[in-house]
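Comment thread on ticket #2218

A.B. wrote:
> Attaching the input chain for the structure job we discussed in standup.
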Amino acid sequence: IGIGETGLDYYYKHTDSSTQRKIFIEHIKAAQILDLPLIVHTRSAEEDTLKMLKEEKKRKDFKILIHCFTGSKKFAFDLLDIGAYISASGVITFKNSKKLAETFKLIPDNRILVETDAPYLAPTPLRGKPNEPSYIVHTVEFLSKLKNISFNKLADITTKNFHNLFGDLN
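C.D. wrote:
> Ran it. Output below, let me know if you need it in another format.
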């Protein structure tokens, strides 16, 4: 249903940045050719990620999902400007993620998705445990309170956003 998870991670130095950029471009091209959304991982690489996505969208449009977003507010709005969807994980529920929560509060409802990133990043109150799909309710609950809308409405919104991004999977 999509290409990825792919992207740039300059936090860990397992692969040099030039190799990462080269492979990321190949994945972008695959998303363009196959007309599938690109699921993007980006860590400590906001500038290069945005630059590459913008340049490639000029060549040929494609859909983008930023997986497990933990970036800056500016980065989020730059991504929104190029039509990206942005996904919240359990990280948003952590006490030390107040800036991230404020960013998600401002992201338009029609561009938000939620995810577990299982087995990592279990939301509060289960932080530190292996994550699993059933824990998504805690992230949705947190986001619904943050955005001052009902749990069910946010669940409906994120489901609709999923289908807008990935299509109907029947």
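A.B. wrote:
> Thanks. Noting for the ticket: The radius of gyration is 16 Å.
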